[in-house]
Amino acid sequence: MKDFIRYVIREETSDDVEVQVMGYSGNNPKIQSYKEKIYLGKYLTDKEKDIAKHFFMGNEKMNEGDFLESLASHKKEIISLGDKTYIQFVRGTKKLLIKNSSIKVSKPDETWIKTNIDDLQFFRDNLVFSEKRFRFANGTMSIGDEIEVLLDRLSRRDFVGFIEEDGEKKEWSILNKINSNYTNWYELILDREKQGDLGPNTVPVKDKIRDYFEQQDYSREDAGMTEEEYSSYKRLFPTLSLSDLDIVLSINSSRGLENKSEKLSKIIQNLKNSTEAGDNTEKNFIDYLIQKGYGDDRIKSFSSPGNLVDITFQTDLMILGKNGWIPIQVKSREQYTKLLTYGIKGAGLIYPKGKKWVLKYKDSEGLEQKKYI
Question: Do residues 88 and 197 both lie within one domain?
């Protein structure tokens, strides 16, 4: 009865936006949380009112196809901002926000370390690199120097990421691919757009992208925290981006690996869709090589989870040809690959065309060539 009286009093003292929220009967989770807050006798903050106002200005009628198409035109920026979000999250203090016993930000196990050491050494010992410098995650340096930096970091166990734990089993999680998976970021940004978090439709998409990745103030409800948690974490993290919050909420709202939240399941499925498409193409090409008489001793794959040869040098596998080992990136279609810019002799992009495979490579004069194999 007290709650009802409080609700009636609030209805009489609320402004137009709060009245709209109280009368809302849709299924938008954010507006529903605001409605519950008002029902409990609390007032919406100015930020929450602004979000609700934008929502009621017509975000429900937003054309998803047009919005996603607009996001795609900013693909490079989204990948860059997504990568920055991921690195700051796993290597900084924001990992303290994760409260899930099965998914943690931690160091990988010894199997992951050994596999990467062996693969990097194989890559180094069977190819010839120039001294030309390239931009890598560890700085601008030659390929040889980047390999040595990675090997040194591996020897010091200086790698962290999302780890899925099940008993004594610790696996490098597919969530570590979130950094550059633009399709997944598109979906997460779209969800925020639907909720009205990114302003009305009149706001340019480039500004919505900036607002999604930009550090900003947040409420207890935004972060899904208890009063005690919010009081503690707010001092450590006075601001968080919506991208940070999406990572935190998706993982913390899950209960173990077998009971994932809807948001986390969606993120993982987005990442799996991209990964499986590439893995299937690579498997088909390896099957093709085997049919051509290539044995295991002539094919070296870098397909293990979080493989640093694959991630750093865009090399899916190496093939032993007449003149030595050749690094290859396999794609489902012709596209740009940084592998061809490294100047490694024989390096190529492989992609299917009909029932055949095409090798794209650079000749001795640095000109791109193609041939069926």
Answer: yes
pTM of structure:
0.79
194 and 91 in one domain? yes
* DSSP sequence for 229-268: HHHHHHHH-S-B-HHHHHHHHHHHT--STTS--HHHHHHH
Query: What's phi and psi for 89, nearest 5 deg?
Result: -75, -50
Helix (H, G, I), strand (E, B) or coil at 36: helix
Reduced to 3 states, what is the DSSP secondary structure of residue 324?
strand
Token pair belonging to 291: 């049919």
**Does 361 share its domain with 217?**
no
Partnered with residue 362 across adjacent β-strands are: 368
Q: Are residues 222 and 261 in the same domain?
A: yes
- 345: which 2 tokens? 């002799």
- Give 316's contacts (C-beta < 8 A, 6+ positions apart): 278, 282, 301, 302, 303, 310, 328, 329, 330
Cα 172 from chain centre:
14
Q: Is residue 52 part of a domain?
A: yes
Q: Which helix (H) or strand (E) holds 83?
A: helix 75-91
State the angle between helix axes of 75-91 and 64-72 in degrees (0 to 180), rounded to the nearest 10: 80
Is pLDDT above 80 for 20?
no
Report the range of poorest mean pLDDT among 38-42, 272-276, 290-294. Answer: 38-42
Residue 98, SS3 per DSSP: coil
Decide if 129 is inside a domain. no
pLDDT band at 172 (very low <50, low <70, confident <90, very high): very high
CA-angle at 136, arms to 133 and 137, nearest 5°: 155
Whether 237 and 303 share a structural domain: no
First to last CA, the chain: 78
Give the H/E segment covering residue 300: strand 299-301
Express each pLDDT in 205-260 by its tens digit: 999 999 999 999 999 988 989 999 999 999 999 999 999 999 999 998 876 556 66
Provide the residue range defining the domain that includes 364.
Answer: 278-372
